[in-house]
Design a protein that fits this description.
Blueprint: E1 2-8, E2 11-20, H1 25-38, E3 41-52, H2 54-69, E4 73-78, H3 80-84
Parallel strand pairs: 2-3, 3-4
Antiparallel strand pairs: 1-2
């Protein structure tokens, strides 16, 4: 897994790519916990992924809920739709966010596209 961070427009943009799997998620979890205490807004930008599993999706959901609980913002962008469209995630994506999701930016909800 590759993780790069930069500040942009008052938020931390975290770019992740590579293998987004259980064997690599500990580092990402630790970094997100740090950001929960130091940043008001985090955008996770998903890049090219070699592999991804449900552990990564669970981490996205957990991070989103944790940020919401503290009145902070956590969004997922980049190749999110491509990742959530993978066969191994069938049934785990959402049509709408949970009851805590007041901004309608659930980490497991595909972005709507105007085609």
């Amino acid at each position: 897994m590759n993780i790069e961070e930069k500040e942009k427009d008052g938020k931390v943009v975290m770019q992740v790519s590579g293998a987004l799997t259980v064997s690599n998620v500990v580092e990402l979890h630790s970094r997100l916990r740090d950001l929960l205490n130091t940043a008001d807004a985090v955008e996770m930008e998903i890049g090219e992924t070699e592999d991804a599993d449900l552990t990564f999706l669970q981490l996205l959901c957990s991070a989103h809920r944790a940020f919401i609980t503290r009145n902070k913002r956590f969004t997922v962008t980049g190749l999110k739709n491509e990742l959530l469209s993978r066969e191994n995630f069938a049934g785990f994506t959402r049509e709408r966010g949970c009851t805590r999701d007041k901004s309608n930016d659930c980490a497991l909800m595909k972005e709507r596209t105007n085609v």
